[in-house]
Design goal:
Rossmann fold, binds 1,3-dihydroxyacetonephosphate, about 375 residues, about 15% strand, two-stranded antiparallel ribbon, 14 helices, eight-stranded mixed β-sheet, binds 1,4-dihydronicotinamide adenine dinucleotide, alpha/beta
Length: about 375
């Protein structure tokens, strides 16, 4: 009780979502359905929109606020009246102490530069971004980039969550994994913000493992798409998924000795490999790439097929390759290495299943003892 006999007002947590693509819009809808009317959270969820002008001449942020739908990236799904689209990055984050980062990974460094010194000192972050940066010192996960550049704690949320397949946007059941470093209490607060009867969230103390799962599975999905484009069938695709998962685990553990095996059995691990290899954008564009025999580039196909949405797997394959080649580890990770070489045209799409011809010293399907 306060001095005057009144209860001291407890500050509500204020949430902003940095990003408004396909998954960014679903994330905003999800959290907004939980903040509304909740005593812990302020109702309004501000969503930063990278502004663009629609073919009709209207600004995207205006269209979102007028229709309550992200007409470009998640057409046909109401976001909730408490979602406010804001094209001004600084304004969008100014009042928030819970920041949800969800942009394609290649834009995050630039966004962090713009946000330096502009966010609340008590803010906490969570990254839904699947990807990494490679620095001179080695790989830098996006949550670490956020922590280093903004000086805030940052958890991650990854999982088998294809936004566009109408599973989450239309409230069909799925799961996700929060990875945290130190504070279980903060992870639980994030779980409270995201959990829904149709969206089951669990938390594990293995931030690097969770984030590397989400990041590396995009490269595996490119391999799966190539196999589809070559009409190799389900047995081959299942083999690629198994080998991919094995390489994901081996690389994650080499990069961070703290990574736990059990993380690969969470939604962020095996489940995300499966869903992305079956129905994701990386798979789809890689299939088209293989069907053109590699004649159209991934960039061209991304533009043609995704209408502004971004692939993460191709640039991640390069980033992973940089890490592997810097450490002399290519031979230990034949699938991850081959995907990059196919993406840049050094090997044909068929190399994904003919690996030993191109690299006689090791076989994709035998793998190396290191990988077990
Ligand atoms: N879409 C999905 O099903 C899922 C995506 N993710 C991850 O979420 C992250 C964000 O992906 P989505 O929301 O799907 O985005 P998206 O790929 O659908 O959309 C691209 C977004 O980038 C923005 N953009 C374009 N140029 C930009 C620039 N120069 N600076 C800043 N933003 C720019 C666009 O306005 C748009 O919001 C990625 O790391 C992705 O891997 C995670 C789970 C599911
Ligand atoms: O991360 C995803 C599903 O969990 C989405 O994968 P894509 O980007 O390949 O669609």
């Amino acid at each position: 009780m306060g001095e005057a006999g009144h209860e001291a007002a407890v500050e509500q947590f204020r949430v902003s979502v940095v990003g408004s693509g396909n998954w960014g819009s679903v994330a905003a809808k999800l959290v907004a359905s939980n903040t509304i009317g909740h005593p812990f959270f302020h109702d309004e969820v501000r969503m930063w929109v990278f502004e663009e002008v629609l073919p009709c001449g209207e600004k995207l942020s205006d269209a979102i606020n007028r229709t309550n739908e992200n007409v470009k990236y998640l057409n046909g799904v109401k976001l909730g009246k408490n979602v406010v689209a804001d094209p001004d990055l600084e304004n969008a984050v100014r009042e928030a102490n819970m920041l949800v980062f969800v942009t394609p990974h290649q834009f995050m460094e630039g966004i962090c530069k713009r946000l330096g010194g502009k966010i609340r000192s008590d803010a906490e972050g969570i990254s839904l971004i699947k990807g990494m940066e490679v620095k001179k010192e080695g790989p830098c996960m996006i949550s670490k980039l956020i922590t280093d550049m903004l000086g805030i704690n940052c958890c991650v949320l990854m999982g088998a969550n294809i936004a566009n397949e109408a599973r989450i946007a239309f409230e069909k059941f799925s799961e996700a994994t929060i990875g945290y470093k130190h504070s279980k209490e903060v992870a639980q607060r994030w779980a409270k913000l995201f959990s829904q009867s149709y969206f089951l969230v669990s938390a594990v103390q293995d931030i690097e493992g969770v984030e590397l799962c989400g990041t590396l599975k995009n490269v595996v999905a490119i391999a799966a798409g190539l196999v589809d484009g070559l009409d190799m069938g389900n047995n081959t695709k299942a083999a690629i998924m198994r080998i991919g998962l094995r390489e994901m685990r081996a690389l994650s553990k080499r990069l961070f000795s703290s990574v736990k095996d059990s993380t690969f059995f969470e939604s962020c691990g095996v489940a995300d490999v499966i869903t992305t290899c079956l129905g994701g954008r990386n798979r789809r564009v890689a299939e088209a790439f293989a069907r053109t025999g590699g004649k159209k580039s991934f960039n061209e196909l991304e533009e043609e097929l995704l209408q502004g949405q971004k692939l993460q797997g191709v640039s991640t394959a390069k980033e992973v390759y940089d890490v592997l080649s810097h450490r002399g580890w290519q031979g230990l990770f034949p699938l991850l290495t081959t995907v990059h070489k196919i993406c840049i045209g050094l090997l044909p799409p068929s190399a994904i299943v003919e690996y030993s011809e191109h690299a006689p010293n090791f076989s994709l399907f035998e793998g190396s003892a290191e990988c077990y």
